[in-house]
Structure formats: structure tokens, C-alpha cells
Write a structure and sequence with these properties.
Layout (H helix, E strand, L loop, with lengths): L6 H10 L25 E6 L7 H11 L2 E6 L3 H10 L8 E6 L3 H6 L3 E2 L23 E13 H6 L20 E4 L5 H14 L4 H10 L3 E3 L2 H8 L4 H6 L5 E5 L3 H6 L10 E18 L5 H11 L2 H4 L9 E2 L8 H6 L11 H20 L1
Parallel strand pairs: 1-2, 1-3, 6-7, 6-8
Antiparallel strand pairs: 3-9, 4-9, 5-8, 5-9, 5-10
């Protein structure tokens, strides 16, 4: 999901800087040698800024194989992907993590990945294997881009928080929403795609005209929207944010509990469940990788139970592997979206650039 996502994920990513990982040799993904490569024990993982993994998982990763991974963070998901496209065949690293279903076709069309079927893929549901015929990418996690709301703001005013996209254009929610730029931010793009899925080719532009007239504020990225503008986040409170509605994730509320002192009984933020668009994140072996064997082993590890069960409280996303356990704080304070808005990958591929251009002309310019 991109560098665009969650308070704790960004903080953890910054704290990790260069991380040491190792490929897992257990029966749930990752062997010592998956073939190919130069024999180097260093693997470079290129990622958006929100990649994170717990210290215990990193140590286990190292213990099982000896591969070490240098993590190279390259900005927001879109920015990071563009860098890899520009260096096609001469990649910055061995594995790229963080391309999602909104940008997947751009990566595949530019041929930056080498096919590899990761060990353990049989435990990943078919509906998230969007390149299952060729295995150029491996699904790693899912999340739902949703509007979050500041519970206190609405309680103080005895105003019901919005629940659906239709609600956001009502007069009572005027000047309350901050969203990210679809041209520069993955959640911003996902939110726009959600409106296309909801209102169709004939109706989404009119919806955005109404949303603009209702005072939506557009900023460049998630970090600015959530941690500066949103009144419900810890960062927003500190910075004097005055927007009680923000485009974020269904898994954002647990962050506001996990890192609060003292910890509140209930999350201070909620999720408008009728606004959510499903995001799927992938990783792939970069074409021209110097350490192909290490890269393959790393892909195996990313869908191992060890790594998958680490995801919820490091990157605040949902594991894709069936049977992976979720921590109580994640399930209690997060929201499970059972019927998210979606678009077929081919539809996104055929229309994304034009939709973004049209959106920019309608909303930003």
C-alpha cells in the first residue's frame, strides 16, 4: 500500500532506515537457495517509505538463511515505481515491494519484473493473485482505503458521522473532508477509483464537482492529510488540524490506540464503511537483479506465516495468506470491510491516466 498510509508505519520505516533481513527456510516459505544469482548474501529490497518489519522477525529471517537485506526506501508508491521504470534492466535492487492494484499495470506493461512463483502461493486466495498466469508479482497484503472520522468532533456537535460517499456531498459535511491528490498519492488515487466504481463512467466526474463545491481540501499525500490536517489523529491534534474527515484506511484506528499513552478504551477515530476501496500490494523480482537467488528467497519469506502475522502491527495491513492470525488490538479497533468497492485491473489499466488527468482538471486546477 504505499508510503501513504499509516502513522506507525511511517514512523517505523523511518526508524528502521537500513534493515537486515534474511530469507526463511521453514516449510511456510523461503529456502536457503532458490536458484540463480551471484552467491551474494546481501539482497536489496526497494520499497515505498512505509515498509516495516519487527525486530524479532528480522532476527528470525537472518537466523534461518543468512541472507541480509538492505532496504532502500524511495518515497511514495508511485514515485518509487517510476524510479524503477526509469532504471529498467539496471535496477536499484533485487526485489520491489509496494506496487498496488491501482498501479500494477504500469509496472507490468513496462516489464520491470522477472517471473517467479513464490513458495507458499497455494495458501494465497486466487482473487488477489492478479498476475497468477505469469507470476511476475506476488501478492503480500491488502487494505481498504476509507474515509476516517474524528469521533469527538461529531459527538460534540451531535452530528452523525458520514457513512457513504453520498453523505460526503451533503451540506452538513461542508468543509470537513481532506483528501490526497490522485496524481501524487496512492490513497488519493484509490479514493478516486472508488468513486468511479460507485458512480460509473457517466457519474464520477459530477460527483467530484459536488464534492469540490462542498469544500473538499486536496493535499499532496497521506502524511500531510492524516498527520497535519486531520483533527482526529495524534499528529493532527498536535498540529492543530481542523478537518474531522480524512481519506485514510480501515486499519488506521488501531494506530491511534496502540501508540497512545495512556491507551484509550476505544479508538478516537472511526471509519465510514461505505466509502472503501480495496487495495492489494505486491512484490516482484526486478529484472536484472544482481542477487536473483536472494530475491526469490525474500519473496518466499514475504508470504510466509512469520512475515504475514507481523504485518498488522507493523504496516497496519491485512495478510493475504489464509490462516494467518490477527492481533486482538487490530481486530478490536480496526474495521473489516466485507463489501469494498473494486475495479477490474484491466479497467484501471485502460483508463487510469485519463481519469487522473480529468480529475486534476476538475478538482485541482
Amino acid at each position: 500500500m504505499s508510503s501513504i498510509r499509516k502513522t506507525a508505519a511511517v514512523a517505523l520505516a523511518g526508524a528502521l532506515g537500513v534493515s537486515v533481513l534474511a530469507a526463511c527456510g521453514s516449510d511456510d516459505g523461503g529456502g536457503k537457495d532458490s536458484g540463480g544469482g551471484t552467491g551474494s548474501k546481501t539482497v536489496t529490497l526497494v520499497s515505498h517509505d512505509s515498509f516495516a518489519a519487527s525486530e524479532a522477525v528480522l532476527k528470525e529471517f537472518t537466523k534461518r538463511t543468512g541472507y541480509t537485506v538492505k532496504v532502500l526506501k524511495s518515497g511514495d508508491a508511485g514515485v518509487a515505481l517510476n524510479k524503477e521504470i526509469l532504471t529498467k534492466g539496471r535496477p536499484q535492487g533485487d526485489v520491489f515491494f509496494g506496487v498496488d492494484n491501482t498501479l500494477l499495470s504500469r509496472a507490468l506493461d513496462n516489464g520491470i519484473f522477472t517471473s517467479y512463483r513464490a513458495k507458499g502461493l497455494d495458501r494465497v486466495p486466487a482473487d488477489v493473485q492478479l498476475d497468477r498466469g505469469e507470476h511476475r508479482v506476488t501478492p503480500v497484503d491488502t487494505g481498504d482505503i476509507c474515509v476516517n472520522y474524528d469521533k469527538k468532533y461529531f459527538a460534540d456537535r451531535k452530528l452523525a458521522p458520514p457513512r457513504t460517499l453520498d453523505d460526503l456531498i451533503k451540506p452538513e459535511y461542508k468543509n470537513l473532508l481532506v483528501a490526497e491528490n490522485a496524481a501524487t498519492s496512492s490513497p488519493g488515487l484509490g479514493f478516486v477509483l472508488g468513486t468511479v466504481a460507485r458512480y460509473g463512467e457517466d457519474g464520477w466526474q459530477e460527483y467530484w464537482k459536488k464534492l469540490k463545491a462542498n469544500g473538499v481540501k486536496i493535499v499532496d499525500g497521506w502524511e500531510e492529510a492524516y498527520n497535519l490536517e486531520f483533527s482526529g489523529s495524534a499528529g493532527g491534534k498536535k498540529e492543530g488540524g481542523d478537518r474531522p474527515l480524512v481519506v485514510s484506511y480501515a486499519s488506521s484506528p488501531p494506530v491511534e490506540v496502540l501508540y497512545a499513552e495512556p491507551k484509550p478504551k476505544d479508538a478516537p477515530t472511526g471509519v465510514a464503511t461505505g466509502t472503501c476501496f480495496r487495495q492489494i500490494e505486491f512484490a516482484g523480482l526486478l529484472k536484472g537483479a544482481k542477487n536473483e537467488a536472494g530475491g526469490k528467497a525474500l519473496l518466499d519469506f514475504l508470504i510466509s506465516t512469520t512475515f504475514q502475522e507481523d504485518l498488522p502491527l507493523t504496516m497496519f495491513v491485512n495478510p493475504v495468506v489464509e490462516g494467518a492470525k490477527l492481533p486482538e488490538i487490530f481486530t478490536r479497533h480496526g474495521v473489516r470491510i466485507t463489501d469494498p468497492l473494486t475495479l477490474a485491473p484491466d479497467t484501471i489499466s485502460e483508463n487510469r491516466e485519463q481519469w487522473v488527468q480529468t480529475w486534476s482538471s476538475t478538482v485541482v486546477k
